[in-house]
Design goal:
- The protein is α+β, with helices and mostly antiparallel strands and 222 residues long.
- The chain folds into 2 domains: 100 residues, Beta Polymerase, domain 2, CATH 3.30.460; 101 residues.
- Helix content is 58%, strand content 11%.
- It contains 10 helices and 4 strands; from the N terminus they run αβαβαβααβααααα.
- Strands 3-2-1-4 form a 4-stranded mixed sheet, with helices on both faces.
- α1 packs across α3.
Amino acid sequence: MSFDITAWMNELIARLQNAFGSRLTAVGLQGSFKRGDYHAQSDIDAVVILNKLTPADMADYKAVLSQMPASPHPVCGFLGGQDDLKNWSRAELFQFGQDTRWLYGTADGLLPPPTRGDARLAAQSGAGTVYHALVHTWVHGQLTAELIKELRKSLFFALQAAHYARTGIYLSDKKTLAAALPAPEKSALLPAPAQTPEEAAADILTCCQGILAECAQSPTAD
């Protein structure tokens, strides 16, 4: 039996309205369900924005989730206050805004319009995080296929931001993005047949170095 994410999210919104009333500002969906490339192990990345987040809201939100219809997909995502979100890092807000489909309320007045400078900051931060995790594990741990898979997942977001910084176009699908990227970045994002973890790691490292150098040489505001 297929899972109906639209019906599930509508039920969540109704229960959130009952629990928080007028304090509920916006509800959205992120991740693989938003992109349409979900699979059996995908999480439901729900975004819930209240007018102001208080410690008591954690228990209330957990209670709402515990009363939701059973789902084969675990729920994760973001719970926050609208003023806190306005004060968030613009680099993080770039990805947050681009990857959210608002189902209740709106991002108008909640998130700043994305700029290519914001995207460069997001790409730089993302590439640095992947670089650090890769090198640390390469030296102090063990490169595994599972690690490479997780690093590629993070690299995908950095490359989305880098492409937006170059073109002003946001591509949410991995294959579409890969087709638009230069060869070294495409090689880092999509696994080659029979590639060893060390070979994949070398491609990812080269890609991160390129993104970092490009972002450092570009202005951060447009």
